[in-house]
Amino acid sequence: VTDDGAGGRTIRVGGPAPYDVVVGHGVAERLPALLPDAATVALVSAGPIEQLTGRLDDTLTAAGHRVVRVDVPAGERGKTLDAAAALWNAFSQVPLTRSDAVVAVGGGATTDLAGFAAATWLRGVRIVHVPTTLLGMVDAAVGGKTAINTAAGKNLVGAFHPPAGVLVDLEVLSTLPVAEWVNGLAEVVKAGFVADPVILDVLEKDLAAARQPGGPGTRELVERSIQMKADVVGADLRETGPREVLNYGHTLGHAIERVERFRWPHGHAVSVGLVFAAALGRADGRLDDATADRHRTVLEALGLPTTYPAGAWPELLEAMRVDKKARADRLRFVVLDGLARPGILEAPEQSLLDKAFAEVAA
Ligand SMILES: NC(=O)c1ccc[n+]([C@@H]2O[C@H](COP(=O)([O-])OP(=O)(O)OC[C@H]3O[C@@H](n4cnc5c(N)ncnc54)[C@H](O)[C@@H]3O)[C@@H](O)[C@H]2O)c1
Q1: Residues noted as catalytic
Q2: Is the C-beta atom of 167 inside 6 A of ligand 1?
């Protein structure tokens, strides 16, 4: 992390197409610097974030860009093929050329949709993400994965399209509903356990305060979580190796999302998945009791669920076997060999899985 001396900090994401993530309060004016020489900018936004979108529009216009605003439906309703087609149409009317750029302002659903449209329009135009939810900031906007949902399932159609930059203005969190904030905290906790335990220390300093959007420590939590993701995706954009650690808690988490037909918030599913993954590590004799128990304690105190109905276990097992990240039908889990020491558990015995599920079964 480098401090720019004017309230903004920059985290570099490496890899084949490196880019910067700028984090700070009131950093909207930094947007033009992330888009040098884009004559026209399609400013795509969704949801109740008009104030920020307006500021970005003014800033870009003042910097000499031609700005065309495009609204898309907020949330998952926007992650459809129809919404992508509407964006392609809007881009053609702008018209948006290869030397122009897209700026996406909104939650993870919006940056995923706009990212996918930008990845496919003219086979790829530049995009800068301006995430406005905690989940968007620490996860969706960083890493270059984009996707839409189709009849085949969630996030099965997409592209790797790293952004040209990411602008994280923490001020926008002041309007975020508590439920959306808490949902994003699951990924923050994950980052703490797989890579950066200081995140856990910051949360544990005052767990009640940590439940409130934008409370003290927000900046540190966001920066550290982004740094963790930047380190991983910088080394492995296409998920062929080290990026797998980001999947901690997600194998059961994805299964819960499927069984719940995607009506459960992602963070809730991941939260149960994290407690399960910790239990697997413990049951396999890798993870000490204190670290395993710490998962449940932290997540519960933050208001995230840590149990799931016992009767759903057969269905969850089945769902895990068809997860897009399973290899053939061998189950593979990211587990911990200790705090911030991720490892892989492949094809565990059924008895081990049962024992771990017993820890989350309600
Ligand atoms: N590409 C990736 O690597 C990646 C990673 C994680 C998640 N995702 C995707 O991200 C999506 C979830 O993202 P999300 O949790 O940000 O949800 P979201 O985009 O659905 O936004 C949630 C809600 O919050 C509202 N909102 C956004 N910012 C706000 C603000 N500042 N104040 C008030 N309301 C605001 C939105 O309008 C929406 O109604 C999922 O589709 C998921 O698949 C992608």
Answers
A1: 123, 145, 187, 229, 239, 243, 247, 250, 254, 266
A2: no
* pLDDT higher than 90, residue 93: yes
pLDDT digits (tens, 9 = 90+) for 297-347: 999 999 999 999 999 999 999 999 987 666 667 899 999 999 999 999 999
Burial of 132 (0-12, 13-18, 19+ CB in 10 A): buried
d(CA 258, CA 315): 10
- Residue 164: DSSP 8-state: S
Whole-number Å distance between alpha carbons of 342 and 191: 11
Is 107 within 8 Å of 123 (Cβ atoms)?
no
Residue-wise burial string across 312-330, b where 16 or more C-beta atoms lie within 10 A, e elsewhere: bbeebbebbeebeeeeeee
| Contacts of 146 by beta carbon, 8 Å cutoff, 6+ apart | 111, 112, 113, 115, 116, 118, 119, 158, 159, 160, 161
